[in-house]
Amino acid sequence: MHAASGKRLGAAHPRQEGPVDLRLVPPALAAWATAALTTVAPPGRVVGLVTVCLLLAGALLIAGRRQAGRARRGRATAAASLLCVAAAAASAGLHGADLRRGPVPELAREYATVTAEVELTSDPRPARPRVRGDRMTPDAVLIDAEVRRVEGAGRTAVVTRTPVLMLVNAGSRGSTGRAGNQAGPGARTVPGHRAPGGAWASGGGTTSGASWLGLLPSTRLRVTGRLVPPLSDGDRIAAVLRVRDRAGPPVVREASGAQRLAGRLRAGLRTATDGLPADARALLPGLVVGDTSRITPALDEAFKATDLTHTLAVSGSNLTIVLALLLGPPGLAQHVERRGLAPRLGVPLRATALLGGALTLGFVVVCRPDPSVLRAAACGAIVLLALATGRRRSLIPALAAAVLLLVLYDPWLARSYGFLLSVLATGALLTLAPRWSAALRRRRVPPGLAEALAAAAAAQAVCAPVVAMLSARVSLVAVPCNLLVEFALAPATVLGFAVLVTAPVAPPVAEALAWCASWPAGWIAAVARAGAALPGGGVDWPGSWGGAFLLALVTGGLVLLGRRLTRHPWLCAVCGLLLLLAVVRPPPLTRVLTGWPPPGWRLAMCDVGQGDATVLAAGDGAGVVVDAGPDPVLADRCLRELGITRVPLVVLTHFHADHVAGLPGVLRGRAVGAIQTTGFEEPADQVEFVRKEAQARGVPLARAVAGERRRLGALDWEVLWPPPDPAPRPEGPNDASVTLLVRVGGLRMLLLGDLEPPAQQALSRSAAAPLVRNVDVLKVAHHGSAYQDPELIRAVAPRVALISCGADNPYGHPAPSTVAALRAGGARVLRTDRDGALAVGPGTDGELRVTRG
Fold first, then answer.
1. What count of other Cβ atoms lies within 10 Å of the Cβ of residue 571?
2. In Å, how far from its chain's centre is CA 161?
3. Residues ≥6 apart with Cβ < 8 Å to 361
């Protein structure tokens, strides 16, 4: 059977591998470095470099004619490297000149308001909302584009071709619309475009934002906006074009036929996944075509924390999985008989190659032919060819050639960390992974597990230094998380592509396939969330090239140590157990080793940066949470370290983002009884955010009113502010903060939220004034800002004052005057920016015990 199958169509015979051919590696690396340096170099230096390289290359080639053997080959390699340097410098110089020519750069330096005709070069994408102080950033849409015609600032219209980044404030609250788009002759708005993520962003935007998100690459618009310089000279754009709009995008010319077809396919994929669970609905379009518009910030952070971000973007693995279905599974790369669809159907080898090329072309068109997709297609094809032929070593020259061609085609890739990570991961799969896999198999590890483990470990080992430099953090769960999602990636991707193809012609079939794909996609998201939630899932690391070099040294040492440890299975098991305990950090063990959380703690202030999150102990594994901070990951991590699995009540003192944006982290994986809020429902976008989160998890909402008193075991608390209706309207959300007096274990603790002097003075004059005198612990209002009522501070006279604020925050919190006033009253002042998380409990002889986390 096997002998016969070796002669049939579609079969292939792996050949004996020879020594690795590294001749293309030096030219590729030289071209890469040159492109990275010369894209922003002055034209004179580029011309000089090209001239010198050409002269030196010619001299080496002439001199090499008189030599033979190794010396001649060495000169030829050096000459080739110099020629590649010259080519890369010339290409980078031309691309760099595109950013300097024409009127756009000069207009950007003048911050001029212009009317421009632009052609979109990428899919519009919503800007991720971020917490800025007490608010979320406004809704915005980002679009890569080229300015084709520009006029303004007293200039006549000029035809040009200059890359810019469009920043569209579409339907943002508070926008005046005065600088909105002004459609020129022949322009028209396009209502009814569907946003890639379904409804427009949750920040209170309008359908105008949805219409911008529905635009396709190659569409031409005529817009009016302000040109501003890019953030740095190393950007691949000449300017940022800021557009403010309410009416929708004015289209001058529709997208091309190919882009409209790709848009219908992508829209069909989104429609077919509308009925899936939230995580699967968000993840499937990202797995298939790189559409991450539905990915929530919390899910995005989870994928970053576990180094699974590559699954959210178009990567070489997408194409590899699809083509492997055609050619056969990677596990059969060393066998004579292939089991892919092509050989089973008797498709000849050349026809199989053509079919694979057609699939690759379709992949590039649907996923957009931008540099990241081209890079993914090239690297994915290389890995697939290596797996399909069983000749991994011979693919090193192919990888070098791909790097060389891609850098010459688009020199900006040389400055892209995504490109660097792709090349490093592909190189690791071709060099380190086969050796490590063979070593594991020699130690009786099953072949499938050995291949998966070696691939994940090799890619992580070479990419971790770069990732650490970018994120200033090292993930300790990246390898196990990548292993756990490995078996789910292939079915999710294949089923996702099946949904993509069938959605336009058979929607019911597409929905059924999407339901099937939701299981592996949901598993991938669950692994990411579970890994990110582990208290010891990552460690902070210097975010610099020095830190990257240090991590590379540490990784190399661990690899050498691992080779020795694999000879001792019991020692490996002990090391694995220790690593597991370090990552999981079970509270009883953590308490023994670190003293956190301290036994008998009553109140804990989480370190969540510039925001507030406080926990009141309410029994074994239970805690009342007061505010959730600005970051779901930090809030969830704090509660896990405290061992909180049940939250009878969440009190949100007011709706500012630095107090409520972390709510998803509090709700994640915990039984939550209710959420109590202030009655002053502003800002409206954050109010809506809290309502959606509560509704999605079936948690009831209630309003806190002064005079309300509750008890939960030994924990007793009373609401002191805000007063019930009718009451004077507060000046803002801060003055409507829910203020609590907490009694537990003989301690009295006052939590002021973000109350400002007007409300603080009113509280001092209210019926609750006697209750706030001489408390044990004060949660200082508004992160210790200077805006405090000194009379209230003197009346409260706390023994311990706790301030929650972020390190190096731009607001100067806490104010030195506030700290001085508290200390003058005899308080011990502690702050999370310097002391980290804080826990308060009763000490001996009536003293208070404060423990730093």
1. 12
2. 31
3. none
State phi, psi for 772 to the nearest 5 degrees. Answer: -95, 5
- Do the Cβ atoms of 136 and 153 come closer than 8 Å? no
**Contact present, 370 and 406 (Cβ < 8 Å):** no
Residue 611: burial class (beta carbons within 10 Å; 0-12, 13-18, 19+): buried
Q: Are 269 and 499 in contact (CB under 8 A)?
A: yes
Beta strands in 527-647 (DSSP E): 538-540, 603-605, 614-617, 623-626, 646-647
Mean pLDDT by 10 residues, the chain (853 residues): 35 48 85 90 86 86 67 78 91 85 88 91 76 62 90 80 86 37 36 34 44 86 91 81 78 87 86 89 84 79 84 64 62 46 68 69 70 64 56 70 87 86 84 87 84 87 90 88 86 86 90 93 90 82 88 88 78 84 79 81 93 92 93 88 92 93 90 92 89 90 90 91 71 89 91 92 86 91 92 92 91 92 93 93 82 85
Structure tokens at 271: 């429609």
Q: How far apart are CA 595 and CA 588, in angstroms?
A: 10
Residue with structure tokens 């618009």? 221
Residue 420, burial from CB neighbour count under 10 angstroms (0-12, 13-18, 19+): middle
Cis? peptide before 535, omega within 30° of 0? no
Numbers of helices and strands, H then E, in the chain: 30, 29
Long-range contacts of 442-447 (CB under 8 A, 24+ apart): 443/566, 447/331
**pTM assigned to the model:** 0.75
